[in-house]
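Protein in question passed on here:
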Amino acid sequence: MASVPVYCLCRLPYDVTRFMIECDVCQDWFHGSCVGVEEDKAADIDQYHCPNCQVTHGPSVSKCRVGRDSGRPVKTGSAQFVRELRSRTFPSADEVLLKPTGAQLTVEFLEERSFSVPVLVLRKDGLGMNLPPSSFSVSDVEHYIGSDKEIDVIDVNRQADLKMKLGEFVEYYNSPNRDRVLNVISLEFSDTRLSNLVETPKIVRKLSWVENLWPEESIFERPNVQKYCLMGVKDSYTDFHIDFGGTSVWYHVLRGEKIFYLIRPTAANLSLFERWSSSSNQNELFFGDQVDMCYKCSLKQGNTLFIPTGWIHAVLTPVDCLAFGGNFLHSLNIDMQLRAYEIEKRLSTADLFRFPNFETVCWYVGKHLLDTFRGLRENRRHPATYLVHGAKALNNAFRSWTRKESLAEHEHEIPETIKTQQLVKDLAKEIRLVEVRVKGRAGSANGAGSSLQQFQPHMATLSDFDSEDELQIDETPPPRRRPSLSSLPRKLPRAKPCSDPHRIREPGEVDFDIEEDYTTDEEMLTVQGVKGGAGGILDLLKASKQVAGLDSALSEEAPASPSTRDAIQGMLSMANPPSSSSSSSSSSPLSISGGGEMLGLIKEKGGRAGWISGVKKSEKKTTFQRPGKRPVKRPARHLSDEESLDEQETLGTCFKDSDYVYPSLESDEEDHISKSKMKRKRNWDDTPWSPKARVTPTLPKQERPVREGARVASVETGLAAAAAKLAQQVSFCPTLCQNFYRCGPLHTITLDEHL
């Protein structure tokens, strides 16, 4: 078996947890603790000589320190850098800060301002925060956490990380002679006894995703980023950064002072920050000089500062300081949190400096937002705008994380209880429903206007008819395009102030109730069709006071104009032909209550048509109606010569008044163009003459012999389909539409086309 290599004076195998340094003479490796070399000082050694080689080659050679006078730039964190930073002037953060009292800092306060600028609270009263007394020291921190706790420490001069025992750092902190500047900013103590002495601000507890939405049964480790203890000596400096995962952060100075240099997270500044972070000479450039504005904020003892999502900031400690703080994700700036997270990934930030299980908590939040949107919609309440925008950004991130090419990188953070594809689909649906309701409130007035314009009557003129030389009844009205579902305006929701003054509003919910109408498009089409037809004639009839069954309020309206009365008279003459009976047809769902008979046309022999009222006309030609269906016409048969003459005489009783003739006949569906070119001899009998009427031949068509083998299957199929369609036509507009010109002169369109 191969032997394990050993190193150092102690001749032990390599241990990854122990610092080692290589001798430049013998190339052997030595533990720093065995040869008296500390890890943080190793960077200052140019050539290291181990104890054995020092006998022949002398002591180790240190690096030459070159000052600014030599032309080399000042390194970030160096003593000279700190001195120059102290002497510089910056715009005051008072230009952008909000300064509420602790009691004023509520969820509503931040929602109104979108938590887009830092918030400074001078006194902790009203924040709902528990802290140790100001006499609390780093030695007390050691007491509650334990001296053997290994912590991460920053060597400020070298801007490098190293590990120490808490007891060692406390000894250094309390020492009067410090040979270096060390800073502790990442000591999380939620799982220690010190946690019992510190309670985060109430506003943080209400907003935090981890505090409120992380399930106890989750198999993932709960992110502990809520409680940090920060211990820094004088001249400690932390360079510009965005807190991991785009988290917001709270700081409270218990003892000492902190100075923050704040930069807005604009698109330009974030781009510059990403470029600066990836540059090779980052530690030689002060990022505050590359942006348009860098604000300075001094945080004194007893002050509390809340820094929003994405704000780029650096921190200087002018005197020894003990502070508490914490990070939290929330719903007020979801989009910015995701942008910061993407910047971290592009910069290949080490996992140690990233928010633990960031994507996992996002999935839990996505499920929560879906339930929230559904609940608000079912209760006719509306989510706040920032929540809708955040949900959209989160759903876009979900799509990106679950793409086939990137799923392997992200699936380890997806909770097993989350059905990713279904969640993405359902959340997108709820977002669309919210956006439709929001747009609907703004466009409801315009929609109503367009609806009125769409159904506004277009009165026919004399030029719409042919000359008097062609006295023919136009049996083929021009086809009309049926209104589409999308062209009809929906009844849109309306926002009104909340009617319940005692209702408790949840974060992300607005103070408005939404009145919604969930009528389907098909129902809206039917309702609006009836209103566009029957409603108009009813208005005319109401104005003339000639409709039975109207209430007394309607009878008090002003009398109609002469032209309106003439139009009503014509319609009534149509509704009451001489041959009609007074019996009503109760089978039609569109019959007008109190209005008498159900009127219609039926086709008879030879393609002629006659009026039908009640059951009188059914002696010649009957119709049958299926439950819930339109009347179905029997197949027409050819008229004999005698019957044709009788029908021609019926034309003499065509319904008319002093101004208009209301033709009631329809012919066979012959070619309209051919008929328009044919000249007919004028009819000089007693039939009333009208320039709008056309007379067609009364003789029946001659029977032609059918050739054997001439039938084609496809033609037969087409004829059968046409016959089925014709059987569903309604011979009269049952809603008595006042816009009869839209239905054609003979009102022979189908009910669907009319509506």
User: Anything to note?
Assistant: The chain has 22 helices and 25 strands.
